[in-house]
Structure formats: structure tokens, C-alpha cells
Amino acid sequence: MANRDALRAFQSRLASRLQAARTTGVAAAWLAVEAGEGKYLFPLGHAGEIFPWTPPQPVPYTQPWFLGVANLRGGLYGVVHLSAFASGAPDNTAATEAARMQSRLVALNELLEVNCALLVDRLAGLRGAEAFTASEPPDAQAPVWLGHLYTDAAGERWQEVNLQALSQQPEFLSIGA
Predict the structure, then answer these.
(1) Which residues form the CheW-like domain (predicted)?
(2) What is the pLDDT of residue 177?
(3) pTM listed for this prediction
């Protein structure tokens, strides 16, 4: 029970910080998340509301990375498994109940006009440019939705994801198998 309360407190603090960053111009530029083996940075202007894990209703004949649809605060959202989409391989690992308790659905900002939420394994907080020691531009062969690759002081590499560009990609919008 204490873990659940701590998790709720963390989510509440993160939501408050996200709102403060949007309204006061705090230096934070990204929402940092972990999905599978990857560490990703979502621009704050592209990320929408963060929801706790809600099992989606499966949709037949869709891509393996499309988990289905979920009712999130009265809206119908397609749920995409971020690590499976990014890697191009289906996620064959069964998540435990404890792991799913840390999972979150990060909705795309409503201004992007795509009712979609990305399944991430863990929220890692807010990051600004000052949190990183180096950055590399994306490879020429990288998908257009991948931005710079940043390295933090601990040597961890974080991939920037342009959610606006992602939401306009035909391969992302084409969920049919």
C-alpha cells in the first residue's frame, strides 16, 4: 500500500511540474520515459495527459505494436506499445502486475489531433538541456520522428522523439495488419 501511495504522490508531483513547466516557462523541455530497453524524451509541447495503465480492448487484424483502444477520461484512444513500434519487433515479454503498476499511458497532445496514447514502462521525470553533457544528430537513415540522441552525466543515452512527426507518419497511422 505504501508503494501505491508513493507512486500516486510521484505522479501528482510530476503532473504539477508538467503544468508549471507549460505555464511558467521552466527550463524543462522534455518528459523522460523508459520503454523496453530504450530511454526516450518527449517534447513537453507534444505530450498530453499521463494516465495510469488501463488494459486496452484488443482490436483484431492490427499491427503487433497496436495494443487496442482504451477509454481514458471519457475519450477513446488507440494504445501503441512504444518499444515494440520503435524496434519494429513485437514485445513477447509478459509484463507482471507489479511492472504494469509502473506503466503509464502518455497521450499525445490534443493539438496533434490524434487520439493516441503511448505505453511506456516508467516515467523518469522532466529533463532540460542542462541535464545532458552531449548530443548527436539523428542518423541519415533514422526515421523522421527521431530527434537528437542525448547523453546524460551518468552516460545514459536518451532518444528524443518528435511526437508531432510521429503522429503524421503513414506507418504509425496504418494500424491494420
Answers:
(1) 27-172
(2) 80
(3) 0.79
pLDDT tens digits, 155-175:
999 999 999 999 999 999 999
Q: From the options 3.40.50.1110, 2.40.50.180, 1.10.340.30, 3.40.640.10, give the CATH code of 2-173.
A: 2.40.50.180
**Residue 107's Cα: distance from chain center in Å?**
8
User: pLDDT tens digit string along 87-130?
Assistant: 877 665 556 666 678 899 999 999 999 999 999 999 999 999 99
CA distance 113 to 173: 12
β-pairing, 38-43 with 157-161?
Answer: parallel
AA identity, residue 61: Y
**Residue 80 near residue 88 (C-beta atoms within 8 A):** no
Give the CA distances from residue 119 to residues 1, 36, 144, in Å, rounded to whole numbers and listed in that order. 24, 10, 20
What residue ranges in 36-65 does DSSP mark as E strands?
38-43, 47-52
